[in-house]
HD domain-containing protein (Actinomadura decatromicini), 196 residues
Amino acid sequence: MWIPGDGEVQALHERYAPSPQAFDLVWTHCVIVCRIAEQVVDGLNVNKDLVRAGCLLHDIGVYRLYDITGELDHKRYVRHGVLGHELLSDEGFPEEICRFCSHHTGMGLTADDIESQRLPLPKGDYVAESDEERIVMYADKFHSKTVPPRFVSADSFALHVRRYGEDKVTAFQTMRETFGEPDLAPLAAEYGHALV
């Protein structure tokens, strides 16, 4: 399977980003998620190159949610995963890479979640299945693209995810036990983002 290198991925971000500000926000987040994942993959029998590519590409669909004024459509933000999957598929990426976009949101979205929450997504299950997908999903939970961006502690995310149901709490706790907790303080200091 073809796995793109960092330069190819960055060039793709630069091509699709509607503005330098959007590029900086999304690309920096993806790089941070990659650095968090690097802490998690140590000692695991996974394809580290695939994890890296997944981290760097997982949010590329966010660019398709910016309007012509440069504003991000927060109401349809949940669609960024399927939009990214479609973008990468149109670019000829293998399905294993496209899935990092559509299968990282929250702690996974099921057809029942989509129906009960009336989410603007095609009905289906968007749940991480491989260890590589789970690592990208997990690492993504520790950094937010809010303005200003911030790092999110495991305890903070555990409280946040509770509003989506006990099954999501359990899924996050299982990942926490499986992958351990990344050390966010040095990254927060390096990037100048708060740790909450």
Observations:
- Residues 6-137 form one domain.
- The beta strands are 143-144, 150-151, 194-195.
- DSSP finds ten helices and three strands in the chain.
- The first strand starts at residue 143 and ends at 144.
